[in-house]
Every structure is written in structure tokens, then in C-alpha cells.
Write a structure and sequence with these properties.
By secondary structure, the chain is mostly helical. The chain has a domain of 76 residues. Helices cover 90% and strands 0% of the residues. The protein contains two helices and no strands.
């Protein structure tokens, strides 16, 4: 096997594993977002119950937990938006490169 063939195989493996990694990161982000939203929903439903009355330290812990979970949701949404913007920028970059290559080919021929 030549060095060039090995390099192509390595690139293909890298691209394949990079895609798998991207899928796993997306899955984990979505899973954590779902769990966080469910926890916030549960905590807010607790606030509507008459029998739920946290006092002293429990009230502080409840408020802190609710706040941190809400922050987690905001960060998860920011991550998702950032990834979408990154994909959009990458697609634009690839499109520009392809247009440049096709115009170069027209000039050379």
C-alpha cells in the first residue's frame, strides 16, 4: 500500500469518526436538555402544590437548584445555536471553495 493510499484511508477514517463524534455530542446535548427541562417542569409543578412549603435551608437549596438548572438549559440552547451557526458558516465556506475551484477550472480550460 502506498503512502498516498494510507493517507486517503486515514482521512476517510478521521471523517467517519468525526461524524460519529458529532452525532454523539448532539445526542448527549439533547438528552441533557430534555432532562433539565423535565426537572424544571417538576420543580415548578411542586411550587403550585399547597402542601409544598420549603423553609430555611431547603428553600435556599430549592432556589439554587432551580436557578442552576435554568442556567443549564440556557447554556444548552446556546450550544445548539452555536453549533447551527458553525454548520452554516462551514457550508458557506465549502460553497465558496467549490465555486472558486469551478471558476479556476473554467479559466484553465
Amino acid at each position: 500500500m502506498t503512502l498516498n493510499t494510507q493517507k486517503i484511508n486515514s482521512n476517510e477514517r478521521f471523517i467517519r469518526w468525526q461524524g460519529i463524534l458529532r452525532e454523539h455530542v448532539t445526542f448527549i446535548n439533547n438528552l441533557l436538555m430534555t432532562i433539565a427541562i423535565a426537572v424544571v417542569g417538576y420543580l415548578i409543578s411542586l411550587l403550585n402544590e399547597v402542601t409544598f412549603n420549603p423553609i430555611d435551608n431547603k428553600k435556599i437549596l430549592f432556589t439554587t437548584g432551580l436557578t442552576l438548572t435554568f442556567i443549564s438549559i440556557c447554556l444548552g440552547l446556546a450550544t445548539t445555536i452555536s453549533r447551527l451557526l458553525d454548520f452554516k458558516a462551514t457550508l458557506k465556506k465549502i460553497k465558496i471553495e467549490l465555486e472558486k475551484k469551478s471558476s479556476d477550472e473554467l479559466v484553465l480550460s
